[in-house]
Amino acid sequence: MVSQSPRSQSPTPLALDPRRILDMNYAFASTAMLVAAVRLRLFTHMAYKVLTPAELATLAHTEPGPTERLLKGLEVQGLVEREGDTYRLTSLSDHFLVEGKPGYLGGDTLAMLDYLPAWFELDRTLCTCQPYRDLGDAATSEAFFAPRVRDLFPLVHPVAKRTVAMVSLGAHEQPLHVLDVGAGSAPWSAAFAQQYPFAHVTAVDLPRVVEQGRQQIAELAMSDRYTWLEADM
User: Fold this and answer.
1) Chain centroid, CA 58 distance in Å
2) Domain span at residue 156?
3) Per residue in 89-106, pLDDT tens?
4) pTM to 2 decimal places
């Protein structure tokens, strides 16, 4: 019996399917469509109403033809649904992409404009061991996180609430002291404070981040249960 070499057992080029590579090459297109739609506030314009592409273009100050093509792309992504000549939001986009709603993630979407250039420098980082940005530097870290922590709250807080619900600390009628280091917008400590009415939180973060955290907790009507400390930990 003559054994075949590994090369002779490999699939022929015609049998290989390049779709996985092509999907990776063009995955950015889905992100770009979503970023464009969020920047143009399309999902917010479409909230609670059904619109034609021309009607949406008027609200968004765009051209009808390109707007319709973008809507078709968003339909493929499951973010809008077509009804005859009109489009409406799906439950997914209505919950997470309409400005002003508690679960709004559009801010996180827009952060991709900053994240993607960093990822495309990955080869340089591997060659130099130098990060795209040094988050160990307090000034760099503060500038990076301050605009983002509010956007992360609706992403993290639901997970925090489910986690806290599974962690039984017993019945607390005496003060419960919570220390939140690197608090950001305080999604984790807020979940504890909501679960335990007698909890008081000391939250620590960089000055500009603390400013954002104060605003988030104020919206939850829990400012009197927080002490904020500005520090580089």
Assistant:
1) 28
2) 149-168+175-230
3) 999 999 999 999 989 999
4) 0.80
